[in-house]
Known about the structure:
The chain is an alpha/beta fold. Helices cover about 40% and strands about 20% of the residues. It has two domains: about 1-170 and about 220-255, Rossmann fold; about 190-220 and about 260-295 and about 310-330, UDP-galactose 4-epimerase, domain 1, CATH 3.90.25. It contains eleven helices and 15 strands.
Amino acid sequence: MKILVTGGAGYIGSVTAKALERAGHTPVLLDSMLRGRREFIRDRIFYEGDIADRALLTRIVAEHPDIACTIHMAARIVVPESVEQPYEYYRDNVAKSLELFDQLVALDRPRIVFSSTAALYDVSETFEVDETSPTAPGSPYARTKRAMEMALEDMSGGTTLRTLMLRYFNPIGSDPDLESGIYDREPSHVIGQLVLAAQGVKDHFTITGTEHPTRDGTGLRDYIHVWDLARAHVAAVERFDDVLSELDATSTIINLGTGQGVTVRELLAAFEAVYGDKVPVREAPPRPGDAVGAFANVDKARDVLGWASELTLEDGIASALAWGRKRRAILGFE
Length: 334
């Protein structure tokens, strides 16, 4: 199958493109290059442009009429930035996505796999959440994702649009060949911050928030290897019609995680074990929009996608460290 991947020159998009290729599919990448990296495009079919550009979408479908599904990953994703720039987040994540969805319906390309987030879940007493757990998105970023879920639910109910909404937990690591990974010069994600501290690029790692209601006071997350996440997208496009048929639904939500909760202190200990040395640490208050966290109940992903995570936390840490050693040469950082 040919699969349109918006945000395909980004971190998760480029790894997913590789997973699609390994499964025998052809990704067609669409990216505005606001954040994407040209090094990640490689020799894939690529269109530079905006997801809200209806003429460009029409051209893409005309040139690739065998596109069977769209994986919509293009989005702004930095939580603290969303607090400072809410207009930009709602414009790009919500308003432009609505144009994309409506045009895909008009072009008779109604299947969408949507990248959502576990950041919209409310705090659970046990920290485990399933797809029916209450939501209480705590940042503009998370609220844009929930807004898009609601829009997709409504559009799937009233039009030909059909949707699988994948709620990501916390991706870590790089692709298996170390050809793409986290690309910000200073990543905001915890693993990226740990790698920078381990490399001496930063003089310490900051634990943000030490009084959360978790077992050690630090935030809790479900860290999923990005390659496992990419494999889940392959399962989603391959089983798209079967999933909705089995559920007798026009749209559905599926958690993607490992089913294990890890606190920041536990992550630090695992990182130091893999790295083989201590990392200097400081403590600070939570950042704006930070959530206490949760881990995934992954029963539905297993039951309807036939998918489960295979790689360990330590695999993800080792992959992140390996990418951290290589990315400077690939991305041209000084």
